[in-house]
Amino acid sequence: MTDSSDYRLVLDSEFKRIHETLGYIKEQTTKTNSRVTHLEDAVIELRLADSTHIINCPLGIEVKNIKEGVKENKDEIDKELLEYKFFKKYPKMILIIIALISLLSVYRTFIKDPSTKKDLTNEIRLQESVPKTIRGVDGSLYMIINNNGVTDTVKVR
Q1: Quick one: pLDDT band at residue 146, thresholds 50, 70, 90?
Q2: Element (H, E) at 78
Q3: Could you state, in order of their start, the residue ranges of all structural domains in the chain?
């Protein structure tokens, strides 16, 4: 069977087909390798251009100025928001401060301020000096008058 010519022809045709396929694969691999090499060279060129662009960029000074301006604006905004950040950070303290201010204002208005105290005292005196009428047990009317701490009772009828 191995000596048969048909068998050898079949093997030769298969080897020929395999060699053609290998040749096609080799050709495609060579093309792909060429493309990859070309792309790698382009990447290297871009990296070099990018690294020199930072040094040679005509807008580098403007970018630096913009960064400095942004930093200055951020500092100004932080200064403006300092009070708000304090309130946000310590809300209980703010409530305590508001309560203390309210109590202090009430104390000054009603207790410590002499003019308010005098006004209240005068109002009480005025109300006490207004004559009051009462009905006695026997049915007669009496008027009670308070003059400077002295109380007088007068029978009206």
Answers
A1: low
A2: helix 60-80
A3: 1-56, 59-89
Lookup: tokens for 117: 């105290």
Q: pTM, whole model, 2 decimals? A: 0.30
Side chain identity at residue 7, one-letter code? Y
Q: Which secondary-structure segment (H or E) carries 136?
A: none
- Which residues lie across from 151 on neighbouring strands? 146
Q: Which of 135, 136, 133 is nearest to 144 (CA)?
A: 133
Contact yes or no for 145/151 (Cβ under 8 A): yes
Q: Find where tokens 């493309």 sit.
A: 35
Please give the Cα distance from 79 to 75 (Å, whole number). 6
Cα–Cα distances (Å) from 134 to 71, 131, 141, 147, 156, in that order, read 83, 10, 6, 18, 10
In whole angstroms, how far apart are CA 135 and each of 79, 131, 132? 74, 13, 10
